[in-house]
Amino acid sequence: MNPNSNRGFASDNNAGIHPLMIDAINRANQGHVIAYGDDIYTKRAIETIKENFGESISVFFVLTGTGANVLGLSSLTRPFNAVICANTAHINTDECGAPEKFTNCKLISVDSPDGKLTPESVKPFLHGFGFEHHVQAKVISISQPTEMGTVYTPDEVRSLSQLAREYNMYLHMDGARLANAAVHLKMGFKEFTSDAGVDVLSFGGTKNGMLFGESVIFFNPRLSEDFKYYRKQSMQLVSKMRYISAQFESYLNNKLWHTNASHANNMARLLQKKVSGLPHITITQNVEANAVFAVIPARVIRALQEKYFFYIWDENKNEVRWMTSFDTTPEDISGFVDYLKKLLT
What we know:
alpha/beta, Aspartate Aminotransferase, domain 1, seven-stranded mixed beta sheet, four-stranded antiparallel beta sheet, 11 strands
């Protein structure tokens, strides 16, 4: 398959860079500035993030989403602790054991058909506190949206935060696609993060039009006192940080996060609508962000992948995942659905 022949539906990571992000990088690419974040671009980006998430926060920029998650969790835990997450969580399935390697903590995964944790699903794992033979649960980690494309409401986040407080634990949120959740909820970021009791947030834009760079946000600055050392030791301190910072400033100030995520979410709903009436196609999850999960006949998967690449989610059920992006077009979806129809006949 020519990788440039069709936009596929494998991942929003596969999309290009939004022109406004390139413009932001170009504007920052002037002269010399002090490296490692002691520059005007980083200072402005942090102020912009504070305008969106709250003034009493600490913000740190890193290179990757995995780095953001690992470092955020490292700041909350010690090696005898455990992190509770959904079995489908990115930290559990797609980070090559990095959270366990670098935190030295145990991940405890909870079965969740829709990707969400609830107090009821977490409580059975909250035991053994103070007993030296058991790992000590310290963090509940959730993804927003989940890896199944579902979105936590503020009340759902708040209920998990309250549970964490009850057991002297923390709530961590993986927000690699946070903009898609905000669009679905018709809210700003603050309402379902800091206001809902999240302690540490991984906030990313790479999946929504940025070139590279993520951020770790502490809603309780006390928790970030040693974070700069963790970041350096973990090789996530970027020398030319201005190129990450400039993107974040433009991403938020221009409302690009909202424009891009709205489009990606709309394209997912359009794709859902067009395939829902097809024979032998079953949508398996609520389409709330920019992901469509479906069970399709095994006989059409390979041919469909060759023309419009996507990933198989569960081979045992022939369940696939189709992701839309900020640059997905209605024509992309029409071509995809027309070809799927042809294969189904």
